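Next comes this protein.

***
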Amino acid sequence: MSPAPDRHRLAHGGRHLRVDVLVLRVPGPAARRVPLVGPLAQWLISAYGWRDAYLVLGIGTLALLVPLVWVGVRDAPRASPAPSARGGAPADDGGVRIRAALRTRAFWALFFAYTCTPLAVFTVVTHQVAFAVDHGFPRLFVAGIFGLTGFMSIAGRVIFGFAADRIGRAWSATISYACTAVGTLALLSIELWRHPAGLYVYALLFGLGFGARGPIITAIAAALFPGRRFGAIYGFMSIGNGFGGALGPWFAGALFDVTGSYRIPFLIATLFCAVGSVCFWLAEPRANRPG
């Protein structure tokens, strides 16, 4: 599901939008990754196969989310128009124009930050169970440990959201990327030391960074491109997220088929953490100051 409509609804605060408000309102994938879901999904796959498991989880998600959206979602009040932050695109009474936004460095920096994030995350997440099982850990045990990333993701969003409003958005994103990279290296460590400690460290650190960048990107984008066209601008920006999310898992799987190891794609994923961090610093220096 595209996050653009929800982000547009939450972004009416414009340049004054706080990241800590976003993280409390946008739980995102963390809610789908609580410890119960991982073992449940693994049990469904073992008992009925992955096709039926996907069907059951999909129907359950639909049955839960549709009533919540219809009953609980209301449009936020619109803030008074404000000029764009310096470094963004010029604004008119209706906000920043899409064509003008596409000509700014800030837009493309956030676009590529959105691209690098799933390349760093989903390259690993999609293959984490297969990697651990290949190194001798039971599937249900692995699913339970990796389910901890859901709780850690919720905590990480809150921690990095409050940090973004206090130490700066780029600093907060950079630290969250560091958690992702170190967590990935911890997962790789089981190649050398087949002990569950590496899996626990991975779940804790990788989970802290999982999903932390999305609210920060939204807050920066809302500051730079305020107005009624923000939803369309954010939609264009999120194309990078979809591209990275599609390419990362396929790229890792293709390299595994060629080399017989996940080491190279996982190490490349950590490099995307560094590139994504640079993109945040390039997006807009003023937007990266504490809110």
